[in-house]
Specification:
Largest sheet: 6 strands, mixed
CATH class of the largest domain: Alpha Beta
Order of helices and strands: EEHHEHEEEH
Distance between the termini: 72 Å
Radius of gyration: 27 Å
Number of strands: 6
Strand content: 25-35%
Number of domains: 2
Number of helices: 4
CATH topology of the largest domain: Translation Initiation Factor IF3
Structural class: alpha+beta
Length: about 200
């Protein structure tokens, strides 16, 4: 591709798979988006204004605060594609920690990204090249109101601290057993055996 330069890129938009209530904010997360700015906007729409000011006071000034008269929403949607998927998941998890009792519904899809490569020297006779590739797309719905439990991707509100603590303890215990079982003593035994053989040889 040394004879081509990348021109325009067009991504096929993905349709929201959820049935949303009116005026539900949709937060589009991109690869270059800053998590702090995304959270500031999301929390201003779903969390009480006084709590937002308490936690996020003295921001970096890159995003203007929403008007105080804007009503709070019962639902919030995060969506992202490609490299922004992991960032959208992070934002959703932070919002769930800040605002208790949120129901979550996750949907996975894919979109088509079309890249057009133009020749550097069209007079040579080279044609433009069109390359299409699939990108993963995620939609995360957070709702204060109960959602349909039978839908795939539903997560009930709750705390996972005990689960993570138990898993971490099991991993640490397994690591210690592995280190203590055959690691240090085995290597030490090998060194002692070698020394005893050298001693016998010298005698």
């Amino acid at each position: 591709m040394e004879n081509y330069s990348k021109g325009r890129s067009t991504e096929q938009p993905s349709v929201c798979p959820f049935s949303l209530v009116p005026d539900t904010p949709e937060v589009r997360v991109k690869d270059g988006s800053k998590i702090r700015n995304l959270l500031r906007y999301a929390l201003s729409r779903i969390e009480a204004k006084s709590q937002v000011d308490k936690h996020d006071g003295g921001g970096d000034g890159e995003v203007n605060e929403d008007p105080p008269s804007r009503p709070l929403c019962r639902q919030l949607v995060f969506t992202a594609s490609g490299k922004g998927v992991s960032k959208a998941i992070t934002c959703a998890e932070v919002v769930k920690r800040r605002v208790r009792g949120l129901h979550q519904l996750t949907s996975l899809a894919s979109s088509t990204l079309t890249d057009v490569w133009d020749p550097l020297e069209p007079a040579v006779g080279l044609d433009s090249i069109t390359v299409s590739r699939k990108l993963p797309v995620i939609w995360i719905l957070l709702s204060k109101d109960p959602l349909d439990h039978s839908l795939p991707g539903y997560q009930a509100p709750g705390r996972c601290d005990n689960l993570w603590t138990r898993d971490n303890k099991e991993e640490v215990g397994a690591y210690k057993r592995k280190r203590g079982g055959g690691g240090g003593r085995g290597r030490g035994g090998g060194r002692n055996t070698g020394r005893s053989r050298d001693l016998k040889a010298s005698i």
